[in-house]
Design a protein that fits this description.
mainly alpha, 211 residues
């Protein structure tokens, strides 16, 4: 088992940006417009995945409010959620479906320390086996909670649109097509993702100014 390369800070991002820029001048152009993209690293573990469940299909404001209600009720750790009924969790703000997902996550008792040493494919396989955790969520967890340097989330619509703009594609690439494109960006696919997200924000702003 190969331990994945971990992004620890801006020097890692700079190394990845330099590699990508030498691979394709369009990444260099993106980096020139965006500057250093944000790390967006966060703590791993149960709460990170619970937050992902809470945030599904709701606005940021709604997710923040629900999380605050969950925290006030003491439902941010495995033991408390495992002991709570579905009705208890719904009273704290979760939908019936999300309450089931949260209880399934708590009952799974994942080895979070073990996931830190697991290869990216292993992390994703472990997470998508759980109810309510899709591939996008698993890839984002590997990227930002575990800091994996070589993971991508081609199902992300902003990444698809950014790739269309940066690479001059006639149409937005599908998840399958973007996943195939991203293979060329290994071993720095998560840096490519950060650059594309940053480029998406900057390019949309430039479009607005020009329009």
């Amino acid at each position: 088992m190969t331990t994945p390369r971990i992004i620890l800070g801006e020097p890692c991002l700079a190394e990845g940006i330099d590699w990508l820029s030498r691979l394709d001048p369009r990444f260099a152009r993106a980096a020139g417009l965006t500057g250093m993209p944000p790390l967006r690293l966060r703590a791993d573990g149960f709460e990170a995945l619970l937050d992902a469940i809470i945030s599904q299909q709701v606005s940021v404001a709604s997710a923040t409010a629900i999380r605050a209600r969950m925290a006030a009720a003491g439902y941010l750790d495995e033991d408390r959620i495992d002991a709570a009924s579905e009705e208890d969790l719904r009273a704290a703000g979760l939908s019936r479906q999300k309450a089931r997902y949260a209880r399934a996550l708590a009952a799974a008792r994942l080895d979070y320390a073990g996931l830190r040493q697991a290869p990216t494919d292993g992390v994703i396989a472990t997470l998508v086996a759980l109810p309510g955790i899709g591939r996008w969520t698993a890839e984002i967890y590997a990227m930002f909670a575990l800091g994996h340097a070589d993971v991508f989330a081609p199902g992300d619509l902003a990444l698809q649109e950014s790739a269309r703009r940066l690479f001059g594609l006639d149409e937005r690439p599908s998840e399958k097509d973007l996943r195939a494109m991203s293979l060329a960006w290994a071993p720095w696919r998560s840096v490519a993702a950060r650059l594309l997200w940053s480029y998406y924000r900057v390019d949309r702003g430039r479009e607005g100014i020009m329009g």
